[in-house]
Amino acid sequence: xxxxxxxxxxxxxxxxxxxxxxxxxxxxxxxxxxxxxxxxxxxxxxxxxxxxxxxxxxxxxxxxxxxxxxxxxxxxxxxxxxxxxxxxxxxxxxxxxxxxxxxxxxxxxxxxxxxxxxxxxxxxxxxxxxxxxxxxxxxxxxxxxxxxxxxxxxxxxxxxxxxxxxxxxxxxxxxxxxxxxxxxxxx
Length: 187
Description:
Elements: H1 8-27, E1 35-40, E2 46-49, E3 54-57, E4 66-71, H2 74-84, H3 103-113, H4 122-125, E5 130-131, E6 142-145, E7 150-156, E8 159-162, E9 171-174, E10 180-185
Antiparallel strand pairs: 1-4, 2-3, 5-10, 6-7, 6-10, 7-8, 8-9
Helix pairs in contact: 2-3
C-alpha cells in the first residue's frame, strides 16, 4: 500500500488512512451500491467524494498518492435489505421463510433473494466465502457466534440482523463481539 520505509510517520499515516476507510465503510451502511474512496495525497489536504462519504485527509509530503476502495457488493447489500425487511417475523426452528425464520434460514433466504445460493445450516454456512476479522466486516458479511451455532448478517455500525431464538422475532441487535466464532465474507 505504501512504498516508504517503516517509520513512526508511516505507521501514523497508515492508521489514519485505515480509520478514514473504516469510517467511510460505516457511512455507506445501507447505500444500494456504495463505494468509498480514501486517498493519501502527496502534500496538501485533499477531499475525496463518494456516494455516501466525504473524506478529508492530510499526509506528509514523502508519501505517494494511493487509492484504496471498499466496496459492498450489490448482492451483499440486497441480502442486507431483504433481511432487514424480515424484522418482526417470528423465529421458528427450521423455518426458511417467508413468514418465519430460524437464524440460518434467514441468512439463506436473504441471500437467495439476492441471487446467491447458500447452504441451509450454520455448520455449512460457516465454510462459505472467506474469513475476515471484526475490523474488516462489511455489510452483508455473515457473523457466527455462540460456538458457531448462531448466524446473522452484518448491517454496519456494529449491528447485525438475526433470528435469535424461540419466542423471539427477527431483529437488529449489536454484534456480540465477545461471542464471535467466525465472520465470513460471501464472495
